[in-house]
Design a protein that fits this description.
Layout (H helix, E strand, L loop, with lengths): L3 H22 L4 H4 L5 H12 L3 E2 H8 L3 H13 L3 E5 L7 E5 L1 H21 L5 H22 L6
Antiparallel strand pairs: 1-3, 2-3
Helix pairs in contact: 3-6, 4-5
């Protein structure tokens, strides 16, 4: 065995930690901060742009935060009229989250700005290297996903 699995784990973990540090230290420009929202709130709106009507549970899983933290973020966004919560027709105890026009405006801006920042972070890679890295990470993710769900094999 050549020990690459451990090296990959360490590098992926370090990259993840560095990205989190960069996101925490990222100072958006005035156009972005004029909305008075956090990066996580921007992420929620970005998710709703493509998956409008998500549940709080789905958003919690995608953000990898606690349900109470997600609830607090949603409450602030709802108070600012960036989104609205509506009863879930399939689950009377739950609700679904929908983006408003104001939320869509900020979500689009957040999406544009985050793409620029992410491209800057990956600027040391060629387009071919980015594509190859993406394909390898998808393959790794899919294998881990299968194992965590109890499925075996490719």
């Amino acid at each position: 065995m050549n020990g690459y699995a451990e090296k990959i784990y360490v590098l992926v973990h370090r990259c993840h930690e560095q990205c989190l540090r960069l996101m925490r230290g990222y100072k958006p420009d005035a156009e972005f901060t004029g909305f008075g929202l956090s990066i996580q709130q921007g992420l929620i709106l970005k998710f709703l742009l493509t998956d409008n009507g998500m549940t709080q549970k789905e958003l919690t899983r995608r953000l990898q935060i606690t349900s109470s933290s997600c609830g607090a973020l949603l409450a602030k966004l709802e108070q600012g009229q960036y989104l609205e919560r509506r009863p879930d027709e399939r689950d009377r105890r739950g609700f679904r989250v929908f983006i408003t026009e104001k939320g869509r405006e900020f979500g689009q801006l957040y999406l544009q700005k985050s793409i620029v920042v992410l491209e800057e972070w990956a600027s040391d890679l060629t387009e071919a290297e980015k594509k190859q890295l993406y394909q390898l990470l998808v393959k790794l993710h899919d294998g881990l996903d299968r194992r965590s769900s109890g499925k075996v094999g490719p």
